[in-house]
Amino acid sequence: MKTKINYLAIVVFYSIAIALRYVTNKTTVLDNLSSEFLKVILQGIGPAIGAVISFLIFKIKPTPSLKGNYKNLLIPLLLYWIFPIVLILGTEYYTSGTFSFVAVTAILVYGLLEEMGWRGFLQQELKSLPAIANVLIVATLWFIWHLNFNLTTSNILFFGILILASWGIGAVADRTHSLLAVSAFHSLNNFFPEMSQIKIIILILLVSVWILSLIIKKRKQNRL
To answer: Which residues are registered as beta bridge partners of 178?
Structure first.
């Protein structure tokens, strides 16, 4: 278990993450970019860049990976990326005749880039802290990174959601060590910014399948 926190690495990581967030979200640097897909990706790339640079500078070995502790990459790829893409796009095409492949893919990639930082780097770097302290610090820095400081009810609710997400996604990270898994859970909120009956059904189905798979995975690991 990691026992020493590299605070300088965290400062470097967060400085890069929040600086890039400011440039891509609070300035006009992306205004002339024609690709909406690329624009979305760049808006969430800060945590990933910060994590990679911190890993390299401070020679920190990443714990999570795309595959995680699954036997091969295909399992988490099918379960956490292909399954939601097929389910969401299939339902969308059946109900409205549209097919938002680029948008759905962008949401997953965006979630992956964020999770490379929050769970892939920061949560692991704070591993020696008590679990509640880890969750609160990650959630607070994650909230500040969004650069939205209006004292509104929705913002307070959003902070609460980030605390729950830091706990829940953090548990998935601990269980799977897979960035594909945590990015999928991260993307749920972005998949469904507005709820409807069909979206609630999709959400329940996705979460149910994923949680069941985690339970089965844990039972198999306990038998070993």
So the answer is: 65
Please check whether residue 88 is in contact with residue 202, taking contact to mean a CB–CB distance below 8 angstroms: yes
Per-residue pLDDT reduced to its tens digit, 151-167: 899 999 999 999 999 99
pTM: 0.93
What is the gyration radius of the CA atoms in the chain, in angstroms? 18
pLDDT tops 70 at residue 11: yes
Provide the 8-state DSSP code for 5.
Answer: -
Which two structure tokens, joined as six digits, stand for 156?
């307070």
Cβ atoms of residues 172 and 214 within 8 Å? yes
**The dihedral formed by the CA atoms of 206, 207, 213 and 217, expressed in degrees to the nearest 10:** 150
Residues 6+ apart with CB under 8 A from 11: none
Of the candidates 102, 83, 96, 108, which has an alpha carbon nearest to the alpha carbon of residue 34? 102
Task: Report residue 20 as tokens.
Answer: 């890039």
